[in-house]
Here is the input.
Amino acid sequence: MSDKKQEVLLSLNDVCKYFKVSGGTLKAVDHVTFDIHKGETMGLVGESGCGKSTLGRVTMGIYSPTSGKLTYKGEELDLRKKKSRFSYAKKAQIIFQDPYASLDPRMTVSSIIQEGMEIHKMYDEKRRKERVYELLEMVGLNREHANRFPHEFSGGQRQRIGIARALAIEPEFIVCDEPISALDVSIQSQVINLLHDLQEKLGLTYLFIAHDLNIVKYISDRIAVMYLGNVVELASSDELYKNTLHPYSQALLSAVPIPDPSAEAQKKRIIISGDVPSPINTPKGCNFAGRCPRACDKCKESKPVLQEIVPGHFVACHLVEPQK
Amino acid sequence: MAKDMNNKVLSVNNLHVSFDTYAGEVQAVRGVTFDLHQGEVLAIVGESGCGKSVTAQTIMKLNPMPPARIPEGEVTLGDVDIVKATEKEMQKLRGKEVSMIFQDPMTCLNPTKKVGKQIVEAIVHHTHMNRADAKAEAIKCLSQVNIPNPEERAQQYPHEFSGGMRQRAMIAMALSCNPKVLIADEPTTALDVTIQAQIMDLLAEIKEQVNTAIILITHDLGVVASMADRVAVMYAGKIVETGTCEDIFYRNAHPYTRALLKSLPSVDAEKKDRLVSIAGSPPDLLDPPKGCGFAARCARCMHICREEQPPEFTIGEGHTASCWLLHPDCPSGEERGEKDV
Here is the structure.
């Protein structure tokens, strides 16, 4: 398993995605560099507005980056070209957050799942029908469900349809954009188990975007923490939780309530004041400086860059020195 | 101030709430009983559709009637029975005796009115203060919930506030007349974790300062663990287990409570361990099951569970659960041939 993980599937190099808005430039993703290894689950966490969904969409080609390079299996992707976007879509798929909004209410489940295969001209019509049944059974639904409409399903079942649709064209890489946050606790675990089983069976690579840190820790091999367009910390999930180095990650992790009253009573919560500032016209220095309890003058002057502190553990903070 | 177990502020007794729809009668709440004491935080947990929000809205009588109906039950707040109260009487109670904060603060604040003015409105309605005094009071309320520059902020509209600030403004408004009971319906669900921590901190602070009893409605068991004194677990319109926070987390007796807690990844869970999931989905309350609501999804379901509704069994002081497994005549797990209990 370990040597398999070292193979880089998708590599992001200095990727930026800016949006022009009235009042300036919204830097949704600002100079992000990291690799996603084959067969791993990469967690991406952060608060709303930090750019994690935008980054997810950039990695799967819905948005083309303002600057920077995406390399898939050693080949550079030029997502401005329709042709390369089309062929990349065959390899990368996405599961959306809201299972109510992401399925067309006027299409049957069967046509929702088949659509991708039709577009990519996969199989003949008879084989496609069979594939729909296979996929429905794979995600824990029945073949009888194929001719129903989305409104006949519960939230958890709809999310399963969304997963079946993503799997239909046999992708290698799936972006899971908060796939469980709209679901109930007991249904969440069903979907998590399903994603986990599918990964083992099909050798998928996930980019798992979420704000529920307990779930992300459970499912991910490595986690990237984002704040205001930047990746501030990146490490394996055990390392990140045991040896949290960035002040923002520390506050974020301590803010998560643990479902255990005695652990809650003992825990010291770091409460950071204020809200996430607007990503329009961000400050010159570290984006977190305004809320950071440990900010110094240097933080307000220059932006810290992501550097390797311990092997495999990257932090972007002036206060954290590389350990030798 | 510590919670006072003798000072009951609210008692809900065998409350039933139904909605008449075209498809038939939806029995959203099917016999809920609980008491709330001064200065205590009671958390009501459950999945969506279990009736937790309907219970809370009935205490405020916010459900439009019809389609909602209260076929039986009592809700006693002080010396008023809310079920029998008229709309006029309710208007005197809402905001003064019991007030509520909602999940989505943006849809609950009036976007066309300045925040300060909206708080003044509540104060003037319930007290005999003049506008100038009420305005000063409103600014005091805003500073109580840690809003910086309250004078300036009172002159702003809700859209100028961030999500966390709006929730603070809602709390300020809810507390402006010192209610005995504060109902918080998923107060942090729409917020980010760092903001959630701020709001939870604020609610804990308020509980200490004003000694208001809080009903906290949530599905996040982490929030429950950090705030609640007592917990009521709801499923399919009924409270299936109630007890102190420790009872529910460490000494739980109902299979649903257990399954719910197990379905969360624990702090030191390994990736290899599968999460325990509850198969199936909650029952349809248009046609509620004859027996226990959880029977169809329960791993330890017995014949009687499908036939008859379980009564409430007392496990310890203040800790009760409704499950046939707790009946003294219930055969043990081994006798029923269970592998893993």
Notes: The mean pLDDT of chain B is 84. The first helix of chain B runs from residue 52 to 60. The interface with chain A takes residues 47-48, 162-165, 192-198, 200-201, 219-226, 245-246, 249-250, 259-261, 263-265, 267, 269, 271, 274-279, 281 of chain B (CB under 8 Å). DSSP finds twelve helices and 13 strands in chain B.
